[in-house]
Amino acid sequence: MGAEGGLRERKKLQTRAALADAALRLALEKGPDHVTVEEIAEAADVSVRTFFNYYSHKEHAILGRNPEHLERALERMRSAPAEESPLTTMWFVVHDVLRDLESEGELSRRGELIMSSPALLYQLMLSSIDDERQLTAALAERLGEPVGSTRPALIVSAAGAACRVAMELHKTAPDRPIRELVDEGFQLLAQGIDPAFGPNN
Amino acid sequence: MGAEGGLRERKKLQTRAALADAALRLALEKGPDHVTVEEIAEAADVSVRTFFNYYSHKEHAILGRNPEHLERALERMRSAPAEESPLTTMWFVVHDVLRDLESEGELSRRGELIMSSPALLYQLMLSSIDDERQLTAALAERLGEPVGSTRPALIVSAAGAACRVAMELHKTAPDRPIRELVDEGFQLLAQGIDPAFGPNN
DNA sequence: GCAGCTTCTTGCACTCACTGCAAACTATTA
DNA sequence: TAATAGTTTGCAGTGAGTGCAAGAAGCTGC
């Protein structure tokens, strides 16, 4: 892991990580709604005010969101081979993130935690929505479609839905790995969720 | 409109409506982030504490969420003819809600407001998630599928995604009516969002 | 019409999230 | 080592949201 820059940079990264760690640990221990920012800050040995210099919301710290993920996703999207179908690109993007989270060994626990707490889910959605907008824009450009067209937006958004469904189902059936559930969802989306659809038959 | 029950009942409905109205009006006027509960309560001529007796979150009042919608949706889902395909049922459910919102004459303004405010969008999603769970359960039962299966959950969730995409697109292109955008999304979901999908080709 | 019950409203005190500001502190750079 | 630029912190303040207990108001039986 590249420890670039001077002491200052390193300290910032350290503090950020310490806050995220403490936040996740405490949230797992006491339930996300019963952790206060004060506790998190104390556990990370900084002041409350400093906490807010790093994370604007309590939930951000617990989610420990890595901005790098979005960056990589956008990059992957832009550099995808021309013949790769859009949902396939999304699939790679999603699995890339999953790989990262898994290697941190917290995919499952964190996923469960997220799905169990409205506030967390909500914050995750917040960032998802922002991400979705950017991913949609990137995908639309890649497909050469106008900004207002439905398909790219729907592909991104439906892929997000598939991920959320996968997490939710994994929570109730932990024996089915998330990847498998995600793949199933993507497969369904790809081929059509309901070929018999026809409200005006 | 049936004014059931005694004075008490009516007053409660009145207060609830007054709060929702004031909340929406003020949110449209000053932007949702610059309205305080105090103002809303004052405009509705009740105390702040009373506000919270009706809505547990400020955003709920602005969304003015009608619990009746979910009820009707579940009812529609349960009583759907056996041969109606699942996404078609969702379509009717969605259009039923749209009709209601339209008749209140606020679909567009409220939709725009919601899409423009993270806090509102999150609250909407939160309630959506709750709704989605119930709708998913109902749909799974109707399809005779086990609770943990992917398809019903994905159908409900993807339909929600289509609605959100429709609102988002409508915001940037107000000339395209929401219904039309919703239909386009449903059509795509039904037939398959990406027939060429195949990460393991 | 009133006593007694239930339900709704309100004020109050409190916790907690979050923000702006200015002072103190610390790495960096010349 | 002195100037500078970035970081941390305390403090004061706003606003959301909750629990509690007292009072107001609708309801019910007489």
UniProtKB/TrEMBL annotation, chains A, B:
Pfam families: TetR_C_14, TetR_N. The keyword Transcription applies. Residues 36-55 bind DNA. InterPro entries: Homeodomain-like_sf, HTH-type_TetR-like_transc_reg, HTH_TetR, MftR_C. Residues 13-73 form the HTH tetR-type domain. Keywords: DNA-binding, Transcription, Transcription regulation. Coiled coil: none annotated. One of its GO terms (molecular function) is transcription cis-regulatory region binding. The keyword tRNA processing does not apply. Transmembrane segments: none annotated. This is TetR family transcriptional regulator. It comes from Kribbella kalugense. The lineage of its organism: Bacteria, Bacillati, Actinomycetota, Actinomycetes, Propionibacteriales.
